[in-house]
Each structure stands twice: as C-alpha cells, then as structure tokens.
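We emphasize that the prediction below concerns an isolated chain of 623 residues; any contacts that depend on oligomerization or on bound cofactors are therefore not represented. The input was used exactly as deposited, without trimming of termini.
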Amino acid sequence: MSRPGEDCKGKVGSGVRALAQVTEFKENQDVTYASLRPVQTTVLGKTAKVYLTPFSLNDYKLEQLKHSKSLSEKNSNYKVVCQKTEPKKPCEELLIPKMKAIPSKVESTLQKLSLDVHTESNRPGHKSPSAATVLSVDMESSDEDITLGVDDFSGLSPYERKRLKNISENAKFFASLQLSETAARLHEIIKKRQPPKSKRKTPKKRENEIGCRRSMRLLNVNPSGVSLPSTPTQPVLIEDENPLLPPGPLEMIPENVGDNHELFKGFLQTWGEMSKTIGKNMEVLSSIKSYKANLNDMVISEDTVHKVTKGSISSVALHPSETRIMVAAGSKSGQIGLWDLTQQNKEDGTYIFSPHSQPISCLYFSPANPVHLLSLSYDGTLRCGDFSKAAFDEVYRNESKSFSSFDFLTEDAATLLVGHWDGTLSLVDRRTSGTSYEKLICSSMGKIRTVHVHPVHRQYFMTAGLRDIHVYDTRHLSSRRSQPLVSVTEHTKSIASAYFSPVTGNRVVSTCADCKLRIFDSSCVSSQMPLLTSIRHNTITGRWLTRFQAVWDPKQEDCIIVGSMAQPRRVEVFHETGKGVHSLLGECLGSVCSINAMHPTHYILAGGNSSGRLHVFMKPGSC
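Result of the prediction step, given as a token string:
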C-alpha cells in the first residue's frame, strides 16, 4: 500500500525544480506516521526553496486522498515512492487516525502545503526540476510544530529548529500544569486557614461547685466568719553564725576536757613552772653546713601529728621553753588549740579554747613573759591568755574595725601596734586601764595585712598591703595621713606577708601572689630597701587553703621557711641568696602546711594545715 501524502512545490531559477517524495516510517512496529522535513539541495550552484502549505484532513474526503494518486501519475516530473508498512490494511485506515492526532498548527501547515502542491500540479506546462528535493514526513520529528514563516524557517539550522521545538514544548508543558491557578488556590486556602484549636478541653463549670476548704486561722476569722483584729507581727531575728563574745575577761575552760578538771589544773601548774626557766638566747649563728645537717636529722612520725582545732589553722606559735614542747594553733573558727607533746597520750596533752568568734590571724607568746599568749582575731578583739590566772583578758576591743595583724612595739610587750583591714593602725598600751587604743594612726595604704617591728631599731615598723610595703617611723605618725620613709613597689600582685630578719633586721622577706619570694636589703631601712633576691615559688593555694607566709628561722636569720604545693608534700627551707637548703617531708605529711613556726632554740618545726592538724618535725630525743 503506497500513496502520496502531500505534494510540495519548489521555486527555483532557470530550470531547477523540487521533487517531493513521500515516505512512511514505522514506530514501535505498529504505528505508521508521516513526517515533513524540508531538505535543501543545490543543483548547478543554485538554491532550491521549499514552500510548505498547511492543510487539514477535515477538508478532504477519502476519495480526494485516493485521487491524489492519479494526480501524481499525470505529472511525470514527480516521483512518488510509497512503502508498505502493513499490506493487509488499507491506506486510509492508517493515515486518517494518525493525521487526526497532529496538532492544529501542523494541520494548518499541511493544509497550506497541499493547496500549493495542487495548484502547481494543475498548471499547464509544468515541468520537473533537474535536481530533486526529498521531503520526508515524520510525525514525531522535531519539526512537528512549525510556527515560523517560510523565509525564516528556510534559514534555521537543525539545532535552532530543535531549540524552538523544546521552547514550545516546555511552554505547553508548564501551561498544562496550571501552576498559577494552583498557587492562587493555595494562597486562598492559607488565608482562609484558621489557627488550630487546642485539643485540651476546658472543663465545664458546675453550677453547684463547692469551694475548697480554707484555714480560718489563716483567713483571720472566727468560726462564725467574723474577721478578727490583726495582730502585730514580731520581727524574725536571724541568728548570727559568728556572734561576738561578751566583752571583758573570759574564763579559760577547755572544751574537750569535760569534768576532768584536775588534769587541766596540773597543766596550768606545769605551764607556770616552765615559763620561769626561760633565758635569753644569745647563741651565735651556725654555718650553713651544720645548719643543713641539723635539718636532715628532723623527722616526723605519727606521734607528732595531731588534730587540735575544728577549723583550718590560720596561725601557729611555739612556746620558747627548753624543757617541754608546747605548740599553740589559732583556727579560722576562733579556737585556740594547745598541744603538749611531752604527754604520752595525745588527748591528755591537748586543750581547746574558744576566746574568739572569727579567724585568729596572729598568735604570739609574750617575749617578756611566756606565760601569756596573745591572740588577735577578725572579730575586733585582742586577748591575752594568762595561764597563771586561767583567763583570757581583753586587751583591745573595737567592733567597728576588723583587725588583721599586730606586733610588740617594745621589748617588754607592754605596747602593741595593731593593723586594721581598712589601712589604719592603733597604738595600744596594755598598762592602762580599759580596752581602747591610745592613738589611731592613718597610714598611706588602703589595706594592711601584716605589721612587723624592727628587732633592733624598734622605732621603725613595716606594713604589707595590697601591692606595696611601707616602712614608718613611730616618731612621725599622724592621725590624718602618715607618710612612709620607704615604699617598696616591686610586687605585681597582692602581698600576703612581710617580715624583718629576727636578729639584726637587715633583711626583709615578702610573700606575694605572683609566685615569688623576695629578699630585700633593710640595713638602711630609713632610706631605701633594694631588692636582693627573687625566688620562684608556687604560692597559689586556692580558696580552701590558708595563704603561704614565709618566715625567718629565729636560730638562722639568713634562712626562710615556707610551705609548698609540690608533691610529695613538704616544707621548704631557702637561703637568702635563693638557693634551696632543705625540704622537710615524710610519709606522715600528706597535706599542705600553709602556716609554719620554728622553735627559737631547738630544731623543732610546727606546721598547720587546713583541717586543723599540727605536723611537728623534730630531732629524735628533743622531748
């Protein structure tokens, strides 16, 4: 079955004609379709133009389609090649369904093509061109949608025609999706959408709902419902954690003895006897070699470790007796613990008192009468423990000012110099009646931590504050603002303590929070104090440990003693040149001893830690 689908007319110059060839192709082996594809050929150097005229199958009857065969036969210049796809089916059964599926644009193009072909074929004297132009009809090709004019279409390349086809198909596809209409509907739905209702159902109110019962006492009404007169509320008194103790002397009653007063009376008698036999030590300083050898002989054992206070130890003092070993410790809770190491039983030789309500920062035995133990506390009191009378006498009291440190201004310990945290100083005379100061001195420092008097020239004293060390002359003090003789400003952080060397006072040691121990030359204390040595030492103890305070050894004034954070735990001894002399350590020392004191004549060292324990290093056979 072969029949021409369309005819085309080619206009060429001087004897060049176009030849139309109709060819049928198979798609999926069961669908026959035709495709129109203009082909340009050049014969004898001239261009052939193909004009396509659209037509519609609706305007032609089946007989006309069949009659197109006779038209092609009459015109001998045209060659029509027909191929059979399905011989058993007639041509009209194959072409008509397929041609109906062609879009309207293609139909109009085919209609125009058909009309031009018929017109050209009916002309008299129509001749065939020498060069043939083959036109293939393909329903599924890229030239289905022909929307350009004939002249424009002839100049497009296959790539451009393919591009125009893709643009047209994409436009049709997006138009078929109806995105604008869908977006408009969604916009309307969002506008009409109401907020979701809470799933929680509100309980319905009952008409006869019974109210909850309430206390008539809290409503302040009587059983009849009549309001009672309001009663004035009493102010709630908050109990002070550290209440001040009453002024005046306090009886010396140990807290840990109980009813065994006979033992304590024997202790008081022993205390008085050993204080009478103390003489002044005029021993010449030993060499560093012999001093180091004596330090090597000092050991610690379980018998020399004991808990004497409840809280952290903030001050330690050793009794200067040469016959008995007596250690006193002041705690942050205001307790004073006394420990007699000559007793075989630790508990029998320990006595705890509470003469203060706040931390005890300074604790000294009187240099003139060692039976007296003087203690200074943050609670604004300075007391003297007189073991001959078994009482704590009140020496100085000032509740408006917090005390920080004190020292003996005279050798007989009758005059005291007290430092306050606000930077003021108080001159106290123990020989006068009353508990007030003799003179209030305003220093040039904002805060005073320690006060220390020169051991030889006692008119000079030194104060350590925030970052400075000042030296004053007691003969030139003012109640308004006293100017220091010397100011030391080498420190970069707060200073914990500063002390003169115990024998000559020619050296000063300071402990600073910048992890340095500094040695100054104070031989000309009235003019200058140059820095001699700076020792690198870890002084960061943290919040729960008492700050380190480096002190001089009273037997060897060119050596200092200080606690250490190093492991294993130890107490370190340095020379004034900065060299390490010795480290006191042992298996029984498992904590940091922040506060340490050395015996003035014997090789005995006592250190206190933050749990209230005393650790004593001594040479065997000392007690």
